[in-house]
Amino acid sequence: MTRIDKLVVCGVGLIGGSFALALRAAGLVGEVVGVGRTPASLAKATALGIVDRATDDWADALAGAGLVLIATPVGQMDGVMAAMAPHLAPGTAVTDAGSTKSDVIEAIYRNLDRQLGQVVPSHPIAGSENSGAEAAYAELYRDRKVVVTPLPENDDGAVALVRQAWQACGAQLFEMTPQEHDRVFAAVSHLPHLLAFGLVHDLAQRANAEQLFGYAAGGFRDFTRIAGSHPEMWRDICIANRQALIGELDAYLAELALLRAYLLSGDGGSLEAIFDEARTARNAWANRKED
Questions:
Q1: What Å distances lie between residue 58 and 14, 64, 72, 79, 100, CA to CA?
Q2: CA–CA separation, 96 vs 7, rounded Å?
Q3: For the chain, what are the domain ranges?
Q4: SS3 152
Q5: 78 near 107, Cβ under 8 Å?
Q6: Are 274 and 259 in contact (CB under 8 A)?
Q7: Which class is 4-176 in CATH?
Q8: pTM of this prediction?
Q9: Exposure letters 81-101 (e unless 16+ CB within 10 A, then b)
Q10: Positive or negative CA dihedral for 134, 139, 145, 150?
């Protein structure tokens, strides 16, 4: 991979910070410039060595930049792209780390229509319930999937640079259409987060919440771990992908209605059959992950 003399990271938390640290560890970047909303987060990223310097001036940030990663919550990307557009030179490739793609691509066409060749959407399938610059680490993307959803207008060189950057972070690259991406991740990522947030919120509102949480053990901790994730980020994801997410939620509600019917009728055999099918599917998936 060609060395990136200047990398710009907009959003210097877990995702953006880990990208910068991984490329720095691989010796593939020179200067790393951070852009963000709050001076405190930028100061933290600078103090931790994630970025060399921070700025709120896009003209300064983009001057001579080889690659830009937009790693903000997806709800902020439209504004970020609008601010970047007047200062984005033809030689600078841009990618994003958004967990939804259709809305991000709409923002690209809306704001960066003159630079479509160099803007290559992507989504790293990696993360944590922790957030902020202090959560970033260079190995986050190692052996993790990254989905790239190139635009028809993309230059081959920009696509190659974005792919090579993620591969240099240790990631495995895949391609999907934006629509397929959003349908898949509504089912396996966005819905589980919605359910975890909903369950914890339900229990927290109850009069005996302290007692309930006092007796919660490993199963509850495993199921609800992702409810510790960044609320703003997941608000934006759920709203951006709400059509696909509502479809998945409706399918899950139908499954819950079936389970409720078996409970009402005391049909242990049908419950066990569902549990057995679920266990088999889950273990098969877990074994593939371990291979």
A1: 22, 12, 15, 12, 24
A2: 13
A3: 4-176, 180-290
A4: coil
A5: yes
A6: yes
A7: alpha beta
A8: 0.86
A9: bebbeeebeeebbbbbbbbbb
A10: positive
Looking up tokens 């986050």 gives 140
Distance between CA 245 and CA 236 in Å, rounded? Answer: 12
Model confidence over 231-269: pLDDT tens digits? Answer: 998 999 999 999 999 999 999 999 999 999 999 999 999
d(CA 130, CA 55): 25
- CA-based nearest residue to 241, from 96, 106, 110: 106
Cβ-contact 123, 99 below 8 angstroms = yes
Q: Which residues contact 25 (CB under 8 A, 6 or more apart)?
A: 138
The CATH architecture annotation of domain 180-290 reads Orthogonal Bundle (1.10)
DSSP 50: S
Using CA atoms, how far apart are residues 71 and 80, in angstroms rounded to an integer?
10
CA distance 124 to 89: 25
CB atoms within 10 A of CB 66: 19
Checking phi first, is residue 28 left (phi over 0); if not, alpha (psi -120 to 50) or beta?
A: alpha
Query: Which pLDDT tens digit goes with each residue over 4-29?
Result: 999 999 999 899 999 999 999 999 99
C-alpha radius of gyration, the chain, whole number: 21
Residue 289 makes CB contacts below 8 A (sequence gap 6+) with none
Dihedral (Cα; 167, 140, 112, 93), 10-degree rounding = -40
Residue type for 113, please? D
